Amino acid sequence: KYSLPLIPNQISWWVFNASSRLIISTAISVAANGIFAVASKFSTLFVTVFNYFGMSWTEQASIHINDENADEYFSEISETAIRFFSAVILGIIAVMPFVFPIMINAQYVDAYIYIPILLLGSYFNMIVGIFGAIYVGKKETKSIATSSIYAAIINLIFNLIFIRIWGLYAASIATVVSYAFLAIYRVVDSKKYIN
């Protein structure tokens, strides 16, 4: 009962991560998919670093979800985490002009313009992770699955509609829009459990 909703949740995350690349390859070109993959590396790195915190945070959320001072505890940790990881994203963007030419081959220079957009998507993904821990603590995995499915559908539809018009911008913006939707949904909905 607890684990079953996590299956569609994981499928939704696959849609997030794989559908954009599949649509780019089909609608634009394999070369464009390579550029998008390079642009995604920096946001993927950020999400990987955040996930180390996220696993620990989810465990702590599960332990403290029913504490008397849970609202204060969750507010303090979430605000601190959001500030810290926002600073990390801004730091990545600040060093990008210096790091990008060293780390990335010149043939992928077009990827540079999509990195800040994808990092903004990662920012919303970070918020999703912070507030998703509340659902895990309350054992509300159905809410996790439902919200992830909606966001994956938004990502897929946005990509299908705009990819031929905006090209790689559509894939980048679809990531931001779908994660922003998911973040807003979880922030608002989680207030049922923790204010």
Report a brief summary of the structure.
This protein has 195 residues and is mainly α. It has helices spanning 6-27, 30-64, 70-103, 115-137, 141-166, 168-189.
Kindly estimate the percentage of residues that lie in beta strands according to DSSP: under 5%
Note the gap between the termini: 26 Å
Fraction in helix:
over 70%
The major β-sheet equals: none
Give me the number of helical elements.
6
Structural class call reads mainly alpha
Form type: globular
Estimated radius of gyration: 17 Å
Low-confidence stretches: none
Mean pLDDT: 91
Q: Spell the H/E element sequence.
A: HHHHHH
Strand tally is 0
Structural commentary:
This protein is mostly helical and 195 residues long. Helix content is 83%, strand content 0%. Helix 4 (115-137) packs parallel to helix 6. The longest helix has 35 residues, at 30-64. It is globular. The chain starts with 5 loop residues before the first helix and ends in a 6-residue tail after the last helix. The model has no long low-confidence stretch (mean pLDDT 91).
